[in-house]
């Protein structure tokens, strides 16, 4: 019993570190990702596991996975562009999203940020949230009826991780977490699919910002 309690506190501590460290110890050039991935690698290794056990399997990177990633990304872009953003703008006074306005008029900055989106938004964030945290919570909520609870908790944490954005950005991240969490479970915990979907979604969104069409229907 004591070992189980200590294990739960350890898991909570690791999750808290993964969410808080990037914000409170802002290392340059996204190097916080290296620290967090090394932590996950170390924890998995102590349990006799590798990144393969959270869905990062070479054989999972197939043409089918790529197509699902592309299709699901297009679905999520459409939802955000034509449903979520117009809805919140209709009911609330929403401040303009300016975080990435610096890429407008600079193709080199666009390419640089897209590369970061693939490495951090797609690869890193999906390993941390869907691969590690959601898999960990699935193990804690071991009954099949609680699978959705693991996805929900992970998605809320994913939203809080994006706390530097406004409340509407946090809500969008929660919804995105639910979307990619369900995809992760739907396709047998193949982590490549949410990685590709997330990265492609970020890429399209950045291009829309670059051409000043993000959140605009015309």
Automatic annotation (TrEMBL):
Protein's name in the database: CPBP family intramembrane metalloprotease
GO biological process: CAAX-box protein maturation; proteolysis
Keywords: Hydrolase, Membrane, Metalloprotease, Protease, Transmembrane, Transmembrane helix
MF (Gene Ontology): endopeptidase activity; metallopeptidase activity
Keyword NAD attributed: no
Residues spanning the membrane: 12-44, 65-85, 105-124, 145-161, 167-184, 191-211
Annotated organism of origin: Pedobacter chitinilyticus
Pfam families per UniProt: Rce1-like
InterPro entries the record matches: Rce1/LyrA-like_dom
């Amino acid at each position: 019993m004591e070992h189980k309690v200590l294990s739960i506190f350890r898991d909570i501590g690791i999750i808290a570190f993964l969410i808080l460290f990037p914000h409170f110890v802002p290392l340059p050039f996204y190097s916080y990702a290296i620290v967090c991935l090394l932590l996950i690698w170390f924890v998995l290794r102590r349990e006799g596991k590798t990144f393969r056990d959270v869905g990062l399997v070479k054989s999972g990177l197939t043409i089918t996975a790529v197509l699902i990633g592309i299709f699901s990304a297009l679905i999520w872009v459409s939802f955000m562009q034509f449903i979520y953003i117009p809805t919140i703008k209709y009911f609330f006074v929403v401040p303009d999203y300016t975080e990435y306005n610096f890429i407008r008029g600079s193709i080199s900055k666009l390419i640089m940020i897209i590369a970061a989106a693939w490495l951090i938004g797609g690869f890193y964030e999906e390993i941390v949230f869907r691969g590690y945290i959601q898999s960990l919570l699935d193990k804690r909520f071991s009954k099949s009826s609680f699978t959705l609870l693991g996805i929900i908790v992970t998605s809320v944490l994913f939203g809080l991780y994006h706390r530097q954005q406004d409340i509407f950005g946090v809500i969008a991240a929660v919804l995105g977490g639910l979307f990619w969490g369900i995809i992760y479970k739907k396709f047998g915990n193949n982590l490549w699919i949410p990685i590709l979907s997330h990265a492609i979604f970020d890429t399209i969104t950045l291009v829309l910002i670059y051409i000043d069409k993000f959140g605009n229907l015309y």
